[in-house]
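User: Could you go from structure to sequence for me? I need the amino acid at each position, not a summary. Structure tokens:
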């Protein structure tokens, strides 16, 4: 959410042929051998298999040829006919070659082979259909038998993959494994690859003797392979019933870390916990056994339903590059760096999936959102209990601030499907937090345990979770009659918006009028159907005369647009609605209540309000000011209590506030605002400099970066000194020795010579170095300068001169970065205006670049002067904008809204700044002036 650009510059720096059988003989193995929501969204539309048969069990035999990255296999699927049918359809990827197929009916001891007239592969879908020579009657039982060949994935970590790495002795070693979530089992073997089919699996797999094979269950026996002295076959115990995506295995040179941990409890868990890694990496994994045991104990205690597993293997797989861990049931595969990380949350999330995902599985992919949201909430909740570090305290702020920002736009998600899936899941995760608070932790756990007991070895929908919570809540008397948990949840999930609650107190009658409406920051506030939207809101109220933040039962569940709260405190005491961000909505108050809050926060009593609530009050105030719901004078006044604030969590909203105001105010008051920022932030590093907590270090680092870009002389001198060392290197293109945060201040406040040196480093950037380093350098070259020379120089080199070292992607990046500051987009506007004919011709066949140029050069102005400039350009070249016609028209509409905003707010902000500067010690000598 927070882009540190604008006033203070930029910190943000985005079927193959298989070898013939004869080539796979001999020592064939030795010598020739957690829920993606985008996927889940796509899979909700996937064609479901016909329900003619259902699988009862799988028996899978696999022979991997690791050197050649290919495999042979055989699967026997025990099935039952659910209806009379002469067709059987199941999943089989087009990159599998089925070499043999057979259908066998079983009547007691009698076996009957059913002839197959034809085997068809759907050309567009991974569905294999067998057309039988006769109709098999309903309730018949039998086996489907397939032999097949396939290739391992070497370019990705999906399906059955293979990679390699080198040891410290420069010996090459291979790794093989599976990532079958969400629907990659069809790439490994023909199967019914839908989550609703939960069956036992039995696996036998060949491996080299010097490697280890791990799967969902322990090894039942290991057998020698005839004519292969260097290989063996592991036969694993039969698994409990599970979905295809929970099946998995790994083959690698692994060593167990220390001894196993045997976990046993009164709930029926009796399981061996083991941690594995490559021998040379075990030192980095020290402590993981203890971490895993502690996590498992906490998660098992939460569910109080036993896992039907004998063992859980957690593997730090060498050079595993999957975007997320492979969370097979009883076998979780991590990146090495993730497992050696000191934090608990990623382990908690994967262990929680053992219950919610494997033991109980979503009935269809549409259930992934509720599944992931609940797992995420439980994992964080347990993480805070286990390791309540400063980093963990930032949750849920990191989520809340992001979705507040996204849902307050006129067009949330900007039609980006992936972003919509993530924000929906985030909202669901926060909803579980709402219910944990409002129902109480005991009732919440009771509902979850009712759910998991009912759905163990089965599938579930979101309704099953809401209904279990509802039953527990009513049983414990935690919600009023007539209030339903699912109805509450759906009011949040089904609307891509968030509410704004406004509280106006009547101090004579000791009442409070509460209303709700759609929360919108982005102007104009003309969202269709906004007047029809409402949410079920838990109104938790904290009273100033008797602070009790442990009481989180709502005084009322508000469904109506308006309601009145009786028996409020006297006029001398404030109220706080929705403390601790219990539910994701901001709250506005009448001016007197804001004044009471500010007075209290500036007193020594402020620590009796928890840090998260102090942060919420600050965050709400400035967001409401941007939305036009609150005076900026009140919002800025709320920052005054930070002079005595020691908790870094409360400071988190400040930097976003500084950035957003800096991007919206006119140049006429920027120096005053910059003075406020300098004065305001200067003491921060002094206060937190000697504090050792990670969060406080991050706060000091962030404050220092803002000050550095605001022209703080000690920081600028330090940055330029480091930069000079780079400039004096004999071969500066070999690498950048200075910290990245120093680059932007040098490009902003340093000389043209220093900036030109950076430009040459981009132009001559070696292909052998990471391109992300070049991207960062180019971002800062474009986004940090505030003088026109540097900006015009960059545009001349990259566009007018057509330097071949810059790609179209670079131009998109430059245009985007120039929108971060008034100097940047103003210079880009004049560049466009002065070179119109040349640019129009150059970008005529490249409409995306042309559109990006017009948008960046016209879309960011905030004042009447800017509107006049853009209008002049529009009139001068009317009819010439082609694909960008609608873009400049939209720019003018947006600027008109910004002009209204400026007219209403700039005088208020300026007046407040004048008073602040007049009453504070402003040390201008410490800063560079523009």
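Assistant: Here is the amino acid at each position, in order:
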């Amino acid at each position: 959410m927070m882009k540190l650009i604008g006033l203070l510059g930029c910190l943000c720096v985005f079927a193959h042929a298989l070898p013939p059988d004869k080539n796979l003989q001999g020592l064939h193995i030795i010598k020739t051998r957690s829920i993606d929501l985008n996927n889940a969204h796509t899979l909700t539309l996937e064609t479901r298999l016909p329900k003619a048969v259902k699988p009862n069990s799988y028996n899978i035999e696999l022979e991997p040829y690791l050197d050649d990255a290919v495999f042979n296999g055989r699967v026997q699927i025990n099935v039952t006919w659910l209806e009379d049918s002469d067709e059987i359809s199941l999943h089989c990827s087009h990159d599998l070659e089925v070499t043999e197929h057979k259908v066998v009916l079983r009547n007691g001891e009698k076996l009957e082979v059913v002839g197959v007239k034809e085997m068809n592969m759907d050309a567009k879908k991974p569905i294999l259909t067998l057309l039988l020579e006769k109709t098999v009657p309903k309730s018949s039982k039998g086996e489907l038998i397939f032999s097949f060949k396939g290739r391992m994935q070497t370019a990705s970590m999906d399906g059955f993959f293979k990679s390699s790495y080198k040891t410290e002795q420069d010996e090459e070693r291979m790794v093989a494994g599976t990532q079958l979530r969400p629907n990659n089992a069809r790439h490994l073997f023909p199967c019914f690859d839908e989550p609703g089919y939960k069956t036992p699996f039995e696996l036998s797999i060949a491996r080299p003797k010097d490697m280890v094979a791990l799967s969902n269950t322990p090894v039942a026996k290991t057998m020698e392979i005839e004519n292969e002295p260097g290989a063996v076959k592991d036969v694993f115990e039969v698994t409990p019933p599970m979905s295809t995506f929970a099946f998995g295995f790994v083959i690698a040179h692994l060593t167990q870390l220390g001894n196993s941990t045997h976990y046993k409890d009164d709930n029926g868990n009796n399981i061996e916990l083991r941690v594995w890694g490559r021998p040379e990496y075990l030192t980095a994994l020290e402590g993981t056994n203890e971490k895993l045991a502690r996590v498992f104990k906490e998660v098992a205690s939460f569910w109080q339903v036993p896992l039907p597993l004998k063992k859980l293997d957690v593997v730090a797989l060498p050079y595993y590059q999957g975007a997320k861990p492979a969370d097979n049931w009883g076998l979780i595969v991590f990146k090495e760096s993730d497992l050696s990380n000191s934090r608990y949350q990623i382990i908690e999330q994967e262990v929680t999936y053992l219950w919610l995902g494997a033991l109980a599985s979503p009935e269809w992919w549409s259930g992934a959102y509720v599944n992931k949201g609940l797992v995420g909430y439980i994992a964080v909740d347990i993480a805070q209990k286990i390791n309540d570090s400063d980093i963990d305290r930032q949750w849920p702020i990191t989520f809340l601030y992001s979705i507040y920002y996204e849902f307050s736009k006129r067009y949330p998600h900007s039609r980006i499907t992936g972003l919509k899936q993530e924000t929906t899941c985030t909202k669901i995760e926060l909803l579980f937090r709402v219910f944990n608070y409002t129902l109480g932790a005991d009732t919440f756990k009771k509902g979850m345990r009712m759910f998991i007991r009912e759905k163990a070895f089965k599938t579930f929908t979101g309704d099953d979770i809401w209904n279990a919570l509802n039953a527990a809540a009513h049983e414990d008397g935690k919600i009023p009659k007539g209030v339903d948990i699912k109805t509450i949840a759906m009011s949040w999930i089904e609307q891509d918006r968030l509410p704004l609650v406004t509280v106006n107190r009547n101090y004579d009658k000791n009442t409070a009028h509460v209303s709700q409406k759609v929360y919108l920051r982005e102007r104009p506030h003309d969202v269709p159907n906004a007047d029809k939207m409402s949410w079920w809101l838990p109104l938790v109220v904290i009273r100033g005369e008797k602070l009790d933040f442990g009481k989180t039962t709502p005084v009322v569940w508000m469904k109506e647009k308006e309601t009145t709260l009786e028996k409020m405190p006297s006029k001398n005491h404030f109220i706080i609605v929705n403390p601790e961000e219990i539910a994701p909505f901001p709250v506005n108050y009448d001016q007197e209540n804001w004044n009471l809050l500010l007075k209290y926060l500036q007193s020594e009593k402020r620590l009796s309000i928890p840090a998260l609530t102090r942060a919420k009050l600050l965050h709400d105030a400035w967001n409401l000011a941007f939305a036009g719901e609150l005076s900026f004078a009140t919002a800025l006044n709320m920052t005054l209590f930070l002079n005595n604030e020691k908790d870094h969590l409360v400071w988190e909203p400040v930097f976003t506030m500084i950035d957003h105001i800096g991007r919206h105010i006119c140049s006429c008051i920027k120096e005053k605002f910059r003075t406020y920022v300098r004065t305001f932030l200067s003491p921060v590093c002094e206060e937190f400099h000697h504090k050792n907590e990670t969060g406080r270090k991050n706060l000091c680092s962030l404050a220092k970066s803002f000050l550095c870009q605001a022209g703080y002389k000690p920081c600028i001198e330090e940055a330029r000194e480091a930069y000079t060392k780079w400039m004096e290197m004999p071969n500066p293109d070999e690498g950048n020795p200075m910290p990245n945060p120093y680059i932007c201040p040098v490009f902003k406040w340093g000389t043209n010579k220093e900036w030109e040196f950076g430009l040459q480093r981009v132009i001559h950037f070696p292909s052998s170095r990471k391109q992300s380093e070049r991207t960062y350098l180019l971002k800062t070259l474009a986004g940090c300068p505030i003088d026109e020379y540097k900006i015009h120089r960059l545009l001349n080199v990259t566009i007018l001169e057509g330097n071949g070292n810059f790609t179209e992607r670079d131009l998109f990046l430059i245009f985007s970065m120039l929108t971060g500051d008034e100097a940047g987009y103003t210079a880009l506007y004049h560049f466009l205006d002065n070179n119109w004919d040349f640019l129009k011709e150059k970008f005529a066949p490249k409409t995306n670049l042309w559109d990006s140029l017009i948008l960046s050069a016209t879309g960011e102005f905030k004042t009447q002067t800017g509107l006049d400039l853009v209008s002049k350009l529009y009139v001068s070249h009317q009819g010439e904008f082609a694909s960008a016609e609608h873009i400049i028209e939209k720019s003018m509409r947006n600027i008109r809204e910004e002009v209204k905003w400026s007219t209403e707010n700039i005088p208020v902000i300026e007046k407040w700044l004048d008073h602040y500067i007049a009453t504070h010690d402003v040390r201008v000598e410490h800063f560079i002036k523009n």
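One structural detail worth keeping in mind: Residues 1-34 have pLDDT under 50 and may be disordered.
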